[in-house]
Amino acid sequence: MSSDITINTKLYKQIFEETTNIHDDTVSTVDHVFGSPPLRLIDSHSKMIKFNSATPILWDTTKPNIDKYRVELILDLGFLSSKNNEYLLYNPREYYCLSETRDVNFNKQREQLKCIMKHPFLNTISSSDKQKYLNRVDKLINIYSELLHNKANCSDFYIQLLSEIYKLLGFTDLSSFISNKMISQYNSGLIDKYIPEMITITKNDVFGFLNLLDKGSFFTPPYFRSIKPNIYGVDKFDKNEVIKNIELIIKLLQKKVILPHHSIYFWAWGLSGINHFGNDYGDFTQIEDTLLNLNIKNNISKLQLTLPKQDGLNFAFFKNTCTFSSKKALSTTKFNVSNTKPSRASNICSIYLNSGDHFIEYWNDYKNYKKISELDMKNIV
Question: Could you write out the DSSP letters of every residue in 210-249?
Answer without folding.
Answer: HHHHHHTSS--S--EEESSTT---S-TT-HHHHHHTHHHH
